[in-house]
Design goal:
The protein is mostly helical and 184 residues long. It contains five helices and no strands. The relative contact order is 0.13. Keywords: Membrane, Transmembrane, Transmembrane helix.
Length: 184
Amino acid sequence: MTGAGQPQPRAGAPRRLIGLVALLLFLGMVILLQWRIAPLSPGRFLPQAAFTGYSTADLWAFAQGVGQDPNAVSLYTSLLGWVDPAFIVLFSLWVALTLRPRMLGIVAAVVFALLDMSENIGLLYTLMSFRWDYIFLEFKDMPVPVVSGDMTFLSLLTSAKLTLATLLVAVIAVQAIAGRKAKT
C-alpha cells in the first residue's frame, strides 16, 4: 500500500512496455530483412511485406535469390520461426490490452495472431518445398509445388494480416488521441 505523497504506479505502464518491446522487435526485423534479405531477392521482394499479394512465381524467385546464401536462409527462417512469433505474441497482447472495447481488442488480437502465425508457417513450408532443404534435411522429401503466376492463398493471409495490423494501430491511435482530448 502506498502512503500519502508516494507516487502511484501508472496503470498503462505494462501495456506501454509491451508495446515498446513489440515495436523494437518489429524495427529490428525490418532492419535485418532490408539489410540482409531484400538485397538477395529480385526487386527487393519480401513476401511477408507484400500488401498487394504475390504468386508462387514470386515466392520461387525469392527462394532462388535468397537461397544462394545459406546464412541468409538461416537468418530468414530464424526470423520467421523465432523472432516474428515473439513479435506476434507481444503485439497481440498490446492490442488486447489497449483496444477498446476490451472484447474487441481480444478478438482482434487473436485474429491477428492466427493470421500472422499461419502466414509464417505457410511461408516456411513453401520455401522449404522450394528446396531450401540443404539447410533443413528433414524437409528433403517434400514435393515441389507448382510454380505459377496465380495469387496464392498465402498471399491472402499476408494481405489480411497487413491490413488488420494497419487498422488496429490506426484505431488505437485514434482512441488514444480521443482519450487525451476528453481529459483536457
